[in-house]
Design brief:
The complex is a heterodimer of chains A (546) and B (307). By secondary structure, chain A is of the alpha+beta class. Chain A contains 17 helices and 19 strands. The longest helix of chain A is centred in the first third of the chain and has 31 residues. Chain A is globular, with a radius of gyration of 26 Å. The relative contact order of chain A is 0.14. Chain B is mainly alpha-helical and 307 residues long. Chain B is built from 13 helices and no strands. In chain B, α8 crosses α10. Chain B is globular and about 85 Å long. Classes of the chains: A alpha+beta (546), B mainly alpha (307).
């Protein structure tokens, strides 16, 4: 028995030793993390692509670009209105030829000035097919785009420069569009339109390791996949200089861990509250929890190319399905009110002046079990007697709400097999099926706006053959109204024409609007003046550190 | 013995080729990576074609595999989508996961074997029943539950340790994640050791050793433990590979940017070079660990020898 006692002793000693070292680790972590030095410590996700303005189409990379760069326009974080930043004026008499004048005095953080060439070169680079930039299509309205970026797979460019861009002087250039688009200047706040310094073109590898921009922050160091330290750049002359000394962005593998770290005081700002914590977040953080509308709408889209959904009466079934979904209950119970039931196809962040119209969808988007059942029956019932709702299972926890939506439909129809969720393993595979027109049943579809314009919620999604028209919806009248709205130089009139087009969606219902998504964030008591912009990204340069 | 080692090393070549081949095809079957790059937007055909061309995705699957293998033998494991080379990803991820695995293995060896010896020597006693129950609980609770609970208790409530591991991931920060990673295997090691010890306490050689009047400690360590450890060593050996590859859950919970994290990202983004490269290295780790186990047999029991 003596031996065994000895072994037990060893275990005890080990446990004590472990506790001691664990203690040590904790205290050292705490002291290094004090934010008295004026740095905001924020959570981050690993950007998917290299950080090039015209190659970044997701929110994590976009966050950094918005700190490091400033463009001709900037979207007001509160009103979402596009305001001149580097541009001193953008004028046009015909909604097709634009004259852009830029303010002198802006510099890149390597000291070189921001000139008309910085924009022209950057845009030419972004549009050129050879560079395979994911956001190339943002330049498609500029004259000559079809030469530098032919549409067909395997085609080669016949020009390297957009013919629609003409330099007038170092502070002025002209842009000719290939068709009228009165709201075009308002798109220029998007990251794809940021200027690039000469060093991007001369030594791209070095630039990509440590991007150089013209914004309020510069990148001090960047360890890919782990952390990026941004510091306030004193040479920035714009109106929105950083009020803190810098931002440390830390990559988190899991937003639950980021939230736990916020509770433990290891970071100051988490801009994505995990769904599982939504119940506790108010009691944990109190007023330091932000839940604000963002320019994101979730829909269920129908594959209108499939013969299951192409009959004349099928629109009635789609309307009926829309009325069978109890949006209010689902947003409350599953999303803890971080989403708002949708009543149109845009987003509240646009504001009523920008084209958002509450209730535009009318009774077709209101829960009404009796009417829903009636409409589905009139339309010939569900195709084949049952439907599935497709979603990708790898990210975004879509299963919960898809099941809830199906449940709601099943309750209305009194048949618990009428609708079931249909998961696809990965996002890549899911997108593949949609792009290759392989869907036969409705599927989830989300849209995050590129810029706060009603045009961005309608044209890319429902215009014939548009880039995100997953339903392959085509209605000549809708196309006509959108073209007409784009050509109208009177903004107010343009927006009401867009809304006329949107009303056609109520009749045809190519996609059921479900809910508008909010941005949610939480922060530590070290910070104040934290707000989210309409893209649900924190406005880092305004954050004050105690 | 030498010839045996060489034969084992040569066997690795077909296993290496076979496994990379299988993984390559499996990743390919997950869908087109280019579609996911464009987010919720349909890829513009010209850009998609250009990206496929740049990534060598516009060739047949067989040609892609040959191209990939050719690159691997010249030391080029390809590029992840964010522009980083896979070798540099490996260079940052493997040391961290190896440290985590070492911590986990140490826990398994020290706590697992110690508990196994204690319970094995006292079969049926309250200590034995208690530990058996405890291991049952540990085995039946999923790792992510223990992970989040321990993280919350030690990281947020008690503040003994930081809930997440810093980017450099030094040993002292890996103790809690290492314990979480080790827990399930640790329970198995305890149970294996217990059974093995319990069986061997009745063996003739133990009785002989006791009858010779050897000190109890010597009987347990030199005679009983040495013979009882053979199944345990097999288990721990194969577990090295399993721990390195299976750290996805633990690494996610504790924000460790190791192999599991990179594999997860690679699968999520359908990035064949990352997934195939990392899994290939993991396969090699498995093979080497198995070789090590076989060699250890000979050390533990001289009767087991290979020509």
């Amino acid at each position: 028995m003596r031996g065994a006692t000895r072994v037990r002793c060893a275990v005890g000693v080990l446990a004590v030793a472990l506790a001691a070292t664990a203690c040590g680790g904790g205290s050292s972590g705490g002291s290094s993390g004090g934010s008295s030095n004026g740095i905001v410590r924020a959570s981050w996700g690993d950007p998917q692509n290299p950080l090039e303005p015209a190659d970044t189409n997701e929110v994590q990379g976009g966050k950094v670009l918005d700190m490091v760069f400033r463009g001709l326009k900037k979207y007001n974080p509160k009103t979402a209105k596009a305001e001149n930043l580097i541009a001193s004026s953008i004028t046009s008499t015909d909604a097709q030829n634009f004259d852009i004048k830029i303010k002198p005095g802006f510099k890149f953080s390597d000291g070189t000035p921001v000139t008309a060439d910085s924009f022209i070169n950057a845009w030419n680079y972004g549009a050129l097919l050879k560079n395979a930039q994911l956001n190339a299509f943002f330049f498609e309205q500029i004259d000559g785009y079809d030469k530098v970026h032919p549409d067909a797979a395997g085609a080669t460019a016949t020009a390297t420069k957009l013919s629609g861009l003409t330099k007038v002087s170092n502070t002025e250039f002209k842009v000719k569009l290939n068709q009228k688009f009165s709201l075009w200047p308002d798109t220029l706040g998007y990251a794809a339109f940021y200027p690039l310094p000469q060093s991007f073109f001369t030594n791209q590898a070095a630039w990509l390791k440590k991007p150089i921009g013209d914004g309020p922050y510069l990148i001090q160091n960047y360890t890919k996949g782990t952390q990026m330290s941004l510091r306030k750049w004193d040479g920035y002359t714009g109106p929105d200089a950083a009020v803190n000394k810098g931002v440390d962005l830390r990559v988190y593998t899991d937003n639950n861990t980021a939230y736990t770290d916020l509770q433990a005081g290891n970071i100051d700002l988490v801009d994505d509250i995990p769904a599982s914590q939504l119940k506790n977040v108010k009691s944990d953080l109190g007023s330091r929890y932000i839940n604000e509308p963002a320019g994101i709408i979730q829909t269920v889209a129908f594959p209108l190319y499939s013969n299951r959904w192409s009959s004349a009466k099928s629109a009635m079934v789609r309307q009926g399905l829309s009325m069978a979904i109890n949006r209010k209950q689902i947003t409350q119970q599953i999303f803890q009110n971080t989403r708002t039931p949708a009543t149109d196809w845009t987003s509240p962040v646009l504001g009523s002046a920008g084209g958002y119209k509450a209730g535009l969808c009318g009774q077709e988007c209101t829960y009404d079990p009796t009417k829903a059942k009636q409409l589905i029956a009139q339309g010939g019932g569900l195709p084949g007697g049952k439907i599935t709702i497709g979603y990708n299972a790898d990210t975004g926890s879509h299963k919960e709400w898809v099941d809830a939506v199906c449940n709601s439909i099943n309750n209305v129809l009194g048949n618990n097999k009428a609708c079931v969720g249909e998961p696809t393993g990965t996002f890549a595979d899911f997108r593949n099926k949609i792009t290759n027109k392989q869907m036969t049943n409705p599927f989830r579809s989300g849209w995050q706006m590129d810029y706060p314009l009603i045009q961005d919620f309608l044209q890319p999604l429902y215009f014939t053959n548009a880039s995100s028209n997953d339903s392959h919806y085509s209605n000549p009248q809708f196309d006509k109204l959108v073209n007409q709205a784009n050509a109208d130089s009177d903004t107010g009139k343009a927006i009401s024409t867009f809304q006329d087009a949107e009303k056609l969606l109520v009749k045809d219902m190519p996609a059921i609007p479900l809910w508008y998504q909010n941005g949610s964030a939480g922060y530590s008591s070290n910070l104040s003046n934290v707000l989210l912009n309409p893209f649900s990204v924190p406005v880092y340069n305004e954050i004050k550190v105690k | 013995m030498g010839r045996y080692v060489i034969r084992r090393l040569l066997q690795m070549i077909p296993v290496f080729i076979g496994s990379t081949f299988l993984i390559f095809f499996m990743v390919y079957a997950l869908g087109d990576p280019v579609a996911a790059l464009f987010g919720e937007r349909a890829p513009d055909p010209a850009t998609a074609a250009q990206i496929r061309h740049d990534l060598y995705l516009d060739h047949s699957l067989g040609a892609q595999y040959l191209h990939y293998m050719k690159n691997i033998f010249s030391g080029n494991f390809g590029t992840a989508f964010n522009g980083q080379s896979v070798t540099s990803l490996m260079g940052s991820a493997f040391p961290i996961t190896i440290r985590l695995t070492i911590v986990a293995i140490i826990f398994e060896i020290i706590i697992g074997i110690a508990l196994g010896v204690i319970t094995g020597m006292r079969r049926g006693k309250p200590v034995d029943t208690g530990v058996l129950l405890l291991t049952l609980v540990v085995i039946s609770v999923p790792t992510f539950v223990t992970g989040y609970v321990l993280q919350y208790v030690f990281g947020v409530e008690l503040q003994w340790t930081s809930p997440s591991v810093s980017p450099s991931a030094p040993f002292n920060e890996l103790i809690l994640p290492g314990l979480v990673l080790a827990l399930v295997s640790l329970a198995y090691v305890t149970r294996l050791t217990r059974t093995s010890i319990a069986e061997n306490t009745r063996a003739d050689y133990v009785r002989t050793a006791v009858a010779k009047g050897l000190p109890r400690r010597r009987v347990i360590i030199r005679h009983l433990l040495r013979n009882s450890l053979i199944p345990v060593v097999t288990f721990i050996g194969t577990d090295i590979g399993a721990l390195m590859g299976g750290a996805i859950v633990t690494e996610r919970i504790f924000n460790i940017h190791g192999v599991g994290y990179q594999l997860y990202q690679g699968i999520l983004r359908n990035n064949a070079p990352t997934v195939v490269g990392f899994v290939t290295i993991l396969v090699l780790v498995f093979l080497l660990a198995n070789l090590l186990v076989d060699l250890l047999y000979a050390v533990l029991d001289p009767r087991i020898r290979y020509a």
